[in-house]
C-alpha cells in the first residue's frame, strides 16, 4: 500500500478500489460502531462456526457426518477465505502469481481436499485475524481527508446589480468587488480597496504576526480578516488562488510518494514460489527415487506440507508487533497513521522543522521590558492605557501585564497610520508605536533598538524616549530539550524552514542550536528546499509542521509529522505522524518507539521463521500432522503476542 494512499483513499476512489480485499467491505458513510461490526463480522462468524464444528466432531454428533460436515466447514471458511481467494485471483490476472494470497488459498483448499476441514478453516481464520490487527491499527490512526476541502472558502460576497450577493468563489471573475466581514476568510486573491486591513496569514505563510495591509496592496485567499468589514478587488480566479494552489500541491506531492511495502509482502514473493515448487516436487520427485511410490500418499504429504508452510504465524506476528508499537506510541501522545511509518521513522537521519507553532507557541508574549528613567510598573501603566484602545494582538499581549495599583486612563487617542498611537495619559503626551513614529516626532531612539529583530513597541512620554517592550512568539517549554533528544536519537542534521521573517527565524535557530535555518519562505519554497534535501540524502527526511502552508511539504517528505494539538486540520490530515500533545520533544520519542518496534518485529519474524523451518522439514518427512502444524503456529503466535505486548510496558526517555 502506498504511503499516502492510506490517507487519501476517500479522495482518490480509484486507489481505494485497489486496496486490500479486507478493506473493500467497509462502508465509511456508516456510523463508526456499525463499520467496526461489519469489519469484524466475517471473522466472528467463522470463529463461531469453527468452534461449534470442532465441538460436534469431538462429541461425535450423529447428524454431523459426510456432506453436512463438509457444508458446515465450507460455510465457516467462505467469510474469511473468499476475499483472500478473490485477491489471489486478481493478482494472477495482473501477472503477480506468487503472493501470500495464492499460498493461503492453495494450502487451505488443499486441507479441504484431504479432508482436514477444521484445519483449513483455522489456518485461514488465523490469517484473517492477523489482517484485522493490521487494519485496525491503520483505521484507528487514520481519519477522513475531507478537511482538505473544508479549508476552502465556501462563499464570496460579490457586488453585483447594486448589491452584495453570496456566490460560490469559483464563479467570481477577475476584477469583481468582494466584501469580507470580520473573522471570514478571503475567498480569492486580490487587492485591498479599503483604507487598511489586518489579516491572519499564518495558515498561508507561517508568519506569526498578523499582517497589516494598506489600500492597493495584495491580499491572499485563505487569509482571515481580523479588523472591520473590508472590500477587495479580485485579481485571480479561484483555481489560481493561493489556497487552491496549496491544496493542489498537497495532492500532487502525495502522488509523487514512492510506494512502501511491509516486509511480509516482499517475503511472500520469495517464500511462496519456493514453497509451491517444493510441494510440487514433493508430490512427483519421489516417483524417481522410491520403489513403492504411491501418488495419493505423496500428494497427501505435499498437501500437509503446504498447510504447514502457510505463513499465518509470520503474518500475525508482524502486524501484532506493529500494533504494539502503534499502541505504545498512542499512550505517549504520538499517532502513527499505519505500521509502515514506524519503519520509516527508523531510517530518518535529517529532521526539517517549521518554526511557528512547531517549536514556538504561536502566541505573542512580552519578552523584555526596557524602561528608561521610569519605574517599570509606572512605565507599563502609561503604555497599557494607550494600548487599551487597540484590538491588535500585540496590544492584547501588552495588556496581559499585571501592575499593582489603579490603572491609568488615556484620552484624545488617535491612530497615526502605519506608525502607532498618540494620546494623553495623566496630562502627559504619550506616543506608542514604531521607530518611524518616534523619528517623525524628533524623538531620539537608542541605537541598541536597531539590533532587535522581534516586534518592538516604543514609548515616548512628554517628548522624551521612555523605553520599549519587545514582543515575541514564545518558545515551547520543551523546545531546547526536543533538539537535544532528537540529536541523541541518532539524527545527524536538524534544519529550520519558516515563513516568518528570516531575522527572527535565524535568531530562534541560533537559540535552539539548529544546524541550518532559512526564513521568509512561501509554501512552494519550503517544498523545493525539502525535495532538494531528499534528492541529496541517502536516508529519510522528516518534516515537522502545523499550518496549512506546511501541508504540501508534509505530503512530499519521507515522513510528515504534524503538531496535532493546535495544528491545522489539513496538516494533521496530510501528515504520517501526529504529535497529539503539541510537544516537539515527542519527535525523538517517536523515533525511539519506531526502533523498538522494528527490533521486536524482527524478533518475531526470526522466531516464526525458525519454528516454521523445523516443522516444514518434519512435514516433508511425514513426521508432522495438520494439528501439530497448527499447534506450532498457535504457539509462535502466542509468543509473538507476548513479545509485542512488551512494547506497551516499555519506557522511553
From TrEMBL:
Statement: the UniProt record of this protein carries the keyword Metal-binding: yes
Record carries keyword Transmembrane: yes
Catalytic reaction list: Zn(2+)(in) + ATP + H2O = Zn(2+)(out) + ADP + phosphate + H(+)
Subcellular localization(s) per the UniProt record: Cell membrane; Membrane
UniProt cross-references to SUPFAM superfamilies, sorted A to Z: Calcium ATPase, transduction domain A, Calcium ATPase, transmembrane domain M, HAD-like
Main location: membrane
E.C. no: 7.2.2.12
Family of this protein: Belongs to the cation transport ATPase (P-type) (TC 3.A.3) family. Type IB subfamily.
Record protein name field: P-type Zn(2+) transporter
Gene that encodes it: cadA
Amino acid at each position: 500500500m502506498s504511503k499516502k494512499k492510506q490517507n487519501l483513499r476517500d479522495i482518490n476512489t480509484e486507489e481505494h478500489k485497489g486496496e486490500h480485499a479486507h478493506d473493500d467491505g467497509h462502508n465509511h458513510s456508516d456510523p463508526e460502531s456499525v463499520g467496526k461490526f461489519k469489519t469484524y463480522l466475517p471473522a466472528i462468524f467463522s470463529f463461531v462456526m469453527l468452534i461449534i464444528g470442532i465441538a460436534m466432531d469431538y462429541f461425535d454428533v450423529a447428524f454431523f457426518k459426510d456432506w453436512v460436515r463438509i457444508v458446515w466447514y465450507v460455510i465457516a471458511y467462505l467469510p474469511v477465505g473468499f476475499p483472500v481467494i478473490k485477491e489471489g485471483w486478481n493478482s494472477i490476472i495482473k501477472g503477480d502469481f506468487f503472493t501470500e494470497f495464492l499460498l493461503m488459498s492453495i494450502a487451505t483448499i488443499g486441507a479441504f481436499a484431504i479432508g482436514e476441514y477444521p484445519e483449513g478453516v483455522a489456518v485461514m481464520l488465523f490469517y484473517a485475524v492477523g489482517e484485522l490487527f493490521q487494519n485496525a491499527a491503520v483505521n484507528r490512526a487514520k481519519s477522513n481527508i475531507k478537511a482538505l476541502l473544508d479549508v476552502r472558502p465556501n462563499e464570496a460576497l460579490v457586488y453585483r446589480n447594486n448589491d452584495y450577493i453570496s456566490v460560490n468563489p469559483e464563479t467570481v471573475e477577475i476584477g469583481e468587488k468582494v466584501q469580507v466581514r470580520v473573522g471570514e476568510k478571503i475567498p480569492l486573491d486580490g487587492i485591498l480597496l479599503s483604507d487598511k486591513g489586518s489579516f491572519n496569514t499564518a495558515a498561508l505563510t507561517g508568519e506569526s504576526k498578523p499582517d497589516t495591509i494598506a489600500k492597493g496592496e495584495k491580499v491572499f485567499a485563505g487569509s482571515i480578516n481580523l479588523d472591520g468589514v473590508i472590500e477587495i478587488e479580485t485579481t485571480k480566479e479561484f483555481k489560481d488562488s493561493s489556497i487552491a494552489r496549496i491544496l493542489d500541491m498537497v495532492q500532487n506531492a502525495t502522488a509523487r510518494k514512492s510506494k512502501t511495502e511491509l516486509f511480509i509482502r516482499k517475503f511472500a514473493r520469495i517464500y511462496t514460489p519456493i514453497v509451491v515448487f517444493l510441494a510440487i516436487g514433493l508430490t512427483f520427485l519421489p516417483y524417481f527415487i522410491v520403489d513403492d511410490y504411491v501418488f495419493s500418499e505423496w500428494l497427501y504429504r505435499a498437501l500437509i506440507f503446504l498447510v504447514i508452510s502457510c505463513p499465518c504465524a509470520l503474518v500475525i506476528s508482524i502486524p501484532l508487533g506493529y500494533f504494539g508499537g502503534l499502541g505504545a506510541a498512542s499512550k505517549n501522545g504520538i499517532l502513527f497513521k499505519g505500521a509502515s511509518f514506524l519503519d520509516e521513522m527508523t531510517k530518518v537521519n535529517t529532521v526539517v522543522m517549521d518554526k511557528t507553532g512547531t517549536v514556538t507557541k504561536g502566541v505573542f508574549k512580552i519578552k523584555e521590558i526596557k524602561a528608561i528613567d521610569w519605574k517599570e510598573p509606572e512605565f507599563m501603566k502609561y503604555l497599557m492605557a494607550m494600548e487599551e484602545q487597540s484590538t491588535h494582538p500585540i496590544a492584547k499581549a501588552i495588556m496581559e501585564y499585571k501592575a499593582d495599583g489603579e490603572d491609568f486612563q488615556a484620552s484624545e487617542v488617535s491612530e497615526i497610520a502605519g506608525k502607532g498611537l498618540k494620546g494623553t495619559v495623566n496630562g502627559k503626551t504619550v506616543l506608542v508605536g514604531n521607530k518611524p513614529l518616534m523619528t517623525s516626532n524628533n524623538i531620539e531612539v537608542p541605537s541598541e533598538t536597531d539590533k532587535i529583530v522581534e516586534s518592538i513597541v516604543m514609548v515616548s512620554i512628554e517628548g522624551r524616549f521612555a523605553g520599549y517592550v519587545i514582543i515575541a512568539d514564545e518558545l515551547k517549554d520543551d523546545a531546547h530539550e526536543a533538539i537535544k533528544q532528537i540529536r541523541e536519537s541518532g539524527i545527524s542534521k536538524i534544519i529550520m524552514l519558516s515563513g516568518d521573517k528570516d531575522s527572527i527565524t535565524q535568531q530562534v535557530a541560533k537559540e535552539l542550536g539548529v544546524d541550518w535555518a532559512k526564513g521568509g519562505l512561501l509554501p512552494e519554497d519550503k517544498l523545493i528546499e525539502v525535495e532538494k534535501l531528499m534528492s541529496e540524502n541517502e536516508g529519510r527526511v522528516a518534516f515537522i509542521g502545523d499550518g496549512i502552508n506546511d501541508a504540501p511539504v508534509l505530503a512530499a517528505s519521507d515522513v510528515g509529522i504534524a503538531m496535532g494539538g493546535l495544528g491545522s486540520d489539513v496538516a494533521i490530515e496530510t501528515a504520517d505522524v501526529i504529535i497529539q500533545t503539541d510537544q516537539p520533544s515527542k519527535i525523538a520519542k517517536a523515533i525511539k518507539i519506531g526502533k523498538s518496534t522494528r527490533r521486536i518485529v524482527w524478533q518475531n519474524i526470526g522466531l516464526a521463521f525458525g519454528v516454521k523451518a523445523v516443522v516444514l522439514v518434519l512435514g516433508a518427512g511425514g513426521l508432522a500432522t495438520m494439528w501439530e502444524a497448527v499447534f506450532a503456529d498457535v504457539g509462535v503466535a502466542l509468543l509473538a503476542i507476548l513479545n509485542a505486548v512488551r512494547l506497551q510496558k516499555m519506557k522511553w526517555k
